[in-house]
Amino acid sequence: MTVVIGFTAENFSILATDTRLFVNGRKEDGILDNYNKLYDLPYPLGWCCGAGFNHILENFVQEISANSLGIFFKDINSFTKNLFDVTAEAHSEFIESIEKSSIFSTWFYENGDTNKLHSIAYMLKQSNSIGIQKNTYFIDWPYDYTDEMVATFVNKYDLRGDHNDNLDFALSKILHMFNEISSNSDGVSRICDIGIQIDTSKELMKHRIKNNIENLLLSV
């Protein structure tokens, strides 16, 4: 399992995840603690990561990198459903894990009227794909976080509603949230892997930060 934490503002986006993998999405099949789950996608896409069956994310990255951007943007729902269906057909013994899987991706799109770039994040699932509201923090919780734990966490970090947070504040908040979640879940490693995409008004820039969460917290 894993955790995904993200935030999108008008001119930047952040995606954070960990490096722990349950083989085939099942703890009993083995645990890997150095698995890459954050991918740098081609322009104008930013980063993507996922939770659940690892081959879903790998297939998504492969399809996007194989010049399928036009197909993806033309019909995100159909692209994603086909991706899940093909993966399920090839790995039918893991249907339940595949159905629970999700992909998170960020990118910038251009407003046709103003030619201005805007950041966006999407959650892609087999049933549907959802654009995540701007200026909100979003979390894909690890499997062992109960409803009570989630409610307490949401209240503690004031996650409801809009937040006009700048990049430094949002990054610091995400690091502290990651630290707490990874301390309380055996599905999440202590390595935090973060992809940032920024519109500087001159160009789109990407940054990647990856380290043990204790070391990352020393810098904020």
Annotation keywords:
alpha+beta; 5-stranded antiparallel beta sheet; 7 helices; single chain; 220 residues
Q: How many strands, what sense, and barrel or not for the largest sheet? A: 5 strands, antiparallel
- The end-to-end distance, rounded to whole angstroms, is 27 Å
* Unreliable segments of 5+ consecutive residues: none
Encode the helix/strand succession as letters.
EEEEEEHHHHEEEEHHEEH
Strands side by side in the biggest sheet: 10-1-2-11-12
* Secondary-structure-derived class: alpha+beta
Helicity level: 25-40%
Dominant shape: globular
Sheet-strand content, in percent, reads 25-35%
Radius of gyration, in Å, reads 17 Å
What's the count of strands? 12
Mean pLDDT level: 90
Descriptive overview:
32% of the residues lie in helices and 30% in strands. It has helices at 54-65, 69-74, 76-90, 95-99, 147-156, 167-184, 213-217, and strands at residues 4-8, 12-17, 21-22, 31-32, 39-40, 45-51, 102-110, 117-124, 129-132, 137-140, 191-199, 204-212. The strands form three sheets. A five-stranded antiparallel sheet has the order 10-1-2-11-12. Helix 1 (54-65) packs across helix 3 (76-90). The model has no long low-confidence stretch (mean pLDDT 90).
Quick recap:
The protein has 220 residues and is of the alpha+beta class. 32% of the residues lie in helices and 30% in strands.
